Every structure is written in structure tokens, then in C-alpha cells.
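User: Structure please.
Assistant: Input sequence and predicted structure:
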Amino acid sequence: MNAASFVRGRKLPSALTRIMLRALLTPISRFNVLLCLASLLFSAALYAQPSGGPYGPQPKTYAPPPDAKRLHYVAPDGSPDATGESLDAPTSIEAAIARATTGDAIILRGGTYRTGGLVLSQGVTLQPHADERPVLKGTRVATEWTPLRDGIWRTSWKTLFPSAPRDWWRRDREGMRTPLHRFNNDMVFIDGVPLRSAGWEGELDAHSCYIDYDAGYVYIRTDPTNRLVEITAWDIALLRTSKEAHGKQNDRKGCTLRGVAFTQYAYRALEVEGKRGAVPATEEPTDDPVGIADPSTFGKEVVGTLIEDCTITHCSRVAGYFRGDGLVIRNCLVSDTSTEGIYVIGSSDCLLERNIIARNNVEQLTGYYPSAVKIFNQTRRVVCRDNLILDNPHSNGVWYDVGNIDGVFVNNWVENCLDGFFLEISKGATVAGNVFVNCENGVRILNSSHAVVRQNTFVNATAFFERNTRSAADDHFAWHPATGPDVHERDQHIFSGNLVLADAAYPRPLLRVEQEARLKDTLPTPQLAAADHNVYARPPSPRAPALITWTPFETSARTDAFSSLDELREKLPALETHGRFLAVAPREILRSPELKQLQPSHALPVEAPLPADIAQLLHWSARDSYAPGAYQPPR
């Protein structure tokens, strides 16, 4: 099944979604099912958010770009000596990459390209021929195996990628939870299924591998006879360098990638360099720039990268590091990564749209701050719009961190994550029209200012606003806190027009507004400039947690817990003057939460004003007020 044939207007229960995703074995079948589920998740409704798709890579028939200066045809079995000027005599992808110049297009025939370490310094297009499906793989097939005792098999392997945690990882806190061998970048696949790392031969089972880096051996506990065993051979597919490559200087124009799949790469599949350039896996890749910097001085080395309808899966660390203003990633599938899926660094005016991003931190690393999408280091105006962030139980969803300004997060569906949307050490963000389902925190705002959270639907997902004493003085991450608001500037948030629901089993408050006790004397005023026009709902239960927790109250360091809005108003009468609490289950408000139809089935008792600029972001027609949440009820 491909995305063009998916049936709209149907829903699948969350449990069934998870079972199907985990039951599938091969990477290709996982891709297809993720795409299928994405299109089945939503149906159209009045003012519906998210849009309902299509999401992820869409099947297309590609014509050669009409404005290409020169075409280079390549095939998995292409000859490097061929010119590649005709479809019948393709060259190799390595030869085409070396020859291509600004404005050229590389046309890929379908099939598997086992290749990597490709480097471009030019604004070049890579796309399929017609409706064919090129797949770039970072593995080679292992065929020479020696049987040992106890069902163990061994092969010699020359291309290994040992690594170690970054210097900020705290072994004294996390070493008892995450073994060091998890930080190596090699991967082994049997019939397309990845194996987890083991610490020695005696720990092996049918689902794991052990690598002896000193001797250069790979061990498995599965008979490889008549099995496809693949082992990583490259730690990158394509590097868009900001330096000279193949005798050509950087033209500062981003590449265009369409309709290509990248899979099974050690470390990462794609990287777009900034000023600093690529660094080894053991070094910090995000220090670009270092310290507070003028935005005119970074993000300009490679501008306008476009990635559409691509698939990036099974990378041992990240799908890609992306630097440079004007980045667009649209209708892509990114899944089965470790620390991050998409990593945007030091860039402005970027757009992530209609992507599916799933299953980050598959190795369950601890103390490594994983996020399916990370937007990092003084970005400006980065927009995440209408994406599906799914099945990340050991990872955050989308994390804007370290000095970001005016981020926009609208119309996304975020399900089964730690923090669905996380804003940290940043100034200004618009979070509107999103759906957060089964997240530890649907929205988390930490040590930031001017976050506007409006018209979102939360189902078993808390909204959490938090500040503490972290500052640029003696911080574990050095200059990071200096890029955001100082301790006394972490306020002016707005929480309005949201629909916040939970079932009887949900163990957390629906809204948390808290700060560190040491701030009681210096910051006695609330973080939120406004909290109103929200509807909260949860069925009655003698074991129900507080509805809302809140700090501070004048000079009190205590965080108070409120079981009702009336209790909150007694102490803070300016808050939730129009808000309502309903003692009902989500299914009494929503059309069918079991089938992911989260539109209200009837009118709600509150209407919320909405600034015109946010209504425009949501593509909502102008009205005086709207029902709380991401979906409007029938009128």
C-alpha cells in the first residue's frame, strides 16, 4: 500500500496502532504501515487541526527538473567510467557526485545503493527516475561466518565505528542504567531487523550482537545460513559540506533531495555543515555557533536545503544534522533513531511540515536528553506545522532548546512521548492547534519567556510551566543559559482556550505552574500573564490527583494543589475567570477518543478569544471567539 491509496476518514485505536507498529519486522513494511496509519488517524472536521494529511513520503512520478543545467543518470550497477548523460548508460552515484556542479540534477534509478561518505559542495538535486525507488544503505552484507560453541557465530569486519558518550554525560548517575557499549555506532541487521548491542559473547541471544573492537570481530547467536546479515560500513550517506569538495568551492546553495530512502547508517545519514564543519561522533556537533552570536554571522554557509518525500531510518544516532537558513523538510518519514531524529542547529526561517517522526531513542539511552526533533542553538522563526510525532515513549517529541526565538508549533499531532512539546531557555513561541495524547507532559515550558499556548487539545497530557535558578554562572553546559531569558525574565506566558482532558487512571495534574523554592523571595509573581478560557475535564475519583498545582503565592515557597477551579480562584482571582471544570470522562466530550476522533461532539460551555495572527496561523476564518481546543464542535 502507498500513501496515494490510503482511505481518509477512518481511525485506528491507539492500542491497535502500537501493536501493528511493533509487530512488523522489515524496515520497508514499517515504512508502509506508518504511512498507512498516518492517513487513517484523522478525519476532516470544521476547523480541523491537524489537517489529516497526507503525511510522510508520497508516491510520485518524477520528471527531470526542467531547469537543470545538466542531468547525471546513476544506477546501483552504473559504471564510474560512463558519463551518465543517458538513461541507458548510467554512471555510479559516486562518480556523479564528484562531477556535479551547481544547478545539476542526479537522477537515480531504483534499487539498493550500498554507499556512503558522499560529499557535495554544490546546490545539486537528487531525485528518482520516474516512479522508481532508490534506497541508499550504509551496510554491507556479511557472508563469511565461523561457527563457535554454544550457537555463536563470528565474522571479521573491517569498518567499525567505536564511540563513547559525550563529555557532558554523567556516568556516575547513568552508568548503572546505560552500558557504555550502547554508545558505539555500529549496527547489525538480520533480515532487516536490528540487533541490540551486548557486552560480551555470553550475553548474546537471537536478538543481540557483540562487537570486539580490539580484534575486529562481530558475533551473533543466530545461524546466518540463508539469512541476510547486514553490518554498517559507512557513518554517513551524504555530507553537504561548507568547504571545498571535488575541486569545487562551496556555492552556499542547499541541495534538493526528493523521493530517496536512506537507511542503516552508523551515526547519521545526512549532515549539512555550518561554519565549524562536521566533527567526530565523540565531539559535540551543536556548538555552531558557540556563545551568544549575531544571527547575521551564522546559518549562511549553506542556505535553502530542501528535503521532500524522503525516508530516513535506522541510524545509530541521528537521521541528520541540519544547519543553514531556509531549511525545508516536508513529507518525510524519520524513524528508528537513537538520540535525535531531525536535529536543526543555528538556523533561521526553517519549516518542518507533514512529516512522520517516530521511535526515537530505540536503544533507551539515559541521561542523553533525546528528542525526536531538536531545534537548537539560537534558531529564529523555525516552524513545525502539521507533523505526526508518534511512538516515542523514551524520548521527547519536539524540543526547542538554547536561545531560540519566536518558534512556531502549530497543528501537530503528538502521541506517546515524554514531553510532547518542550521549550527551554528560549524567548517566544506560539503553540496552537496541536493535539497531545498520552504524553508525560503535552507541553513543557522551562526557563523561557513569552510562550503562547492556545487552542490545543490535551488528552492524558499535562501542561507544565516551570522555572528554576539555572543561570549562566557555573552551568554544566557552560554558555547555554546565557542565550535565553535570565532568571528574573522567565514569565509572560499565556495559557488560554485549551481543552485539557484526562481519564480516571491519569496520575498527574492537568496544569502545573511551578518554580524552585529558592526563588520565593526574588520571584513572587506568577510566570503566566494569563490563564483563562480553558476547559478541564476528568471523571470523579477518590484517588484523583490535584487538578492544578501552582507556585508562588507572594513569598511562599510552597506549591499548592487545587482540586477545583473555585479553590484556585480563591487565592488567585484573576485566573480562570471564564474557565470551566467538567467532572466527566473524555468520551463524554469527544466524538470518539477510542477511534482518535477528538472533535467535541457538542458545544462546550466556554468560548475563547483568539488573536487574529494566531487564527491565521491555524487557517481559521475570523470569528470573535472559538471553543477551546484544537477542533471546533459542530455548530
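Helices lie at 14-23, 27-40, 93-99, 171-174, 565-571, 612-617.
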